[in-house]
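Continuing the batch. This is chain 6 of the set; chains 1 through 5 are on the previous pages. Same settings as before, nothing changed between runs. Recording input and output for traceability.
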Amino acid sequence: MKRSYKIIPIYTADVSGVCSALYELGGMTVMHDPSGCNSTYNTHDEIRWYDQDSMIYISGLTEIDAVMGNDEKLIRDIEIAAEELKPKFIALAGSPIPYMNGTDFEAIAKILEQDLGIPAFSVPTNGMHDYVYGVGIALAEIAKRIEGKREVTPKSVNLLGVTPLDFGPQEHVDALIQNVEQAGWKVLSTWAMGDTLENLARAPEAEVNLVVSSTGLRAAEILRERFGTPYVTGTPIRGFMKTLLNAMEEKKQVAYLEEEKRIRGFTLESGKRDTIILIGEPVIMKSLAAAIEIKYRINVKVICPLKETDGLLADGDVAVRGEEELEQVLLRESENLKGVVADPLYRPVCPENVTFYELPHIAFSGRIYKKKLPVLAELI
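Output for chain 6:
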C-alpha cells in the first residue's frame, strides 16, 4: 500500500495529457472509453473547454463491444465524423478497458489513414500513467511527422512542453514567450499552446529547442535525432533568465543543474543548512529552485512525485512514489525545513510547524485554484 493515496489526489492521467497537448492543433482526438476519462478531462483538467472549440471525442465504448472486440463500430464512427469535420489528423488514445482487452490501436490508425487519406496515429495511453507521459508521447508523435530541412534561423527557438496543465491560461504562456524574446531570441513555435500545426512545422528552422517542462523532452529528443537541433532544459522564469540564456548560447543541456553546481560549490558550508522544499514537476521546480538559490543563497531541494525524472534532478533531490513516501521524506527533512512550496492540496501532508507557500498546479488540483494560478514567468 506504499503507493496508495488517502489524503492527496493523484496527478492528471496520461489520456488527459494527450488531449491537452493536441487541443489547439486542428486534429481529432478520440478517447476509446465508455465515458469516465472524458468527464474527468473536461470537468477538471482542461481550462479551455468552455472558451475554445476542439475536436475531442469519446468513443462511448459499451460492455458488449468491449467483450466482443467490435472495433468496426469505433472505425465507422470516427470515419463518419472525420468526413464531416475534415480534421488535420486523427489521434487515438486508449484507456484502461481497451488496454486490458488488447485493442490494436496501431492497426485501427492504419485503417483510418488508408480509408480517409488523413494522417492517423495511436498514442499508447492506458490511464495508468501521469500527464507527463501522455503529453510527452503526443508531442513526440507530432515531432515524428514534421517535414522539412534544417535551414537554421539565427537566435531562434522552439518552446517544447507547453500546456495549461503546467502553465495555466494563454496569458501565462505569453509571458514566457516575452521573457525569451526580450532576451533577443525569436520564438518560432510553442509546443503546443497558442500555436498552430503549420507553425510547429517550422521547428527544424530553430537554432535550439527549449524544453520548458518535462513533457517536452520526448519531442526534443526526436527533433534532435531527425534534424540535429540541440536542446536546453529549463523554464524561462524571470529569476532564472541569465542562467538559461547562457545555457542556450552554449547549448548546455540542463541549465539549472549547471547553475546549481556553481552556486553550491561557491556557498557550501559545513554542517546542516536551512532548507526550502519545492514539490512538483521537475523542470519548472528545478528552474524555480535555481532562481531561489541565486537570489537568497539558501539550500533548495525538489521532491518530484511524477515518474519521469531521469537526468532532471540533482543530488539531494528526491523522486517519490506515493503519499506515504512523500510524508517520510518531509519528516526526514523537517529538522532544518523552513518552508514548503507546493500546490495547496499538499498542505495536509506537510509538517504543521513549517511555513507553506501555495503554488497551484492545474495538473494536480484541477481548476480549484484557477484564479490563484501564478504567472510562473514572473516569479522571483
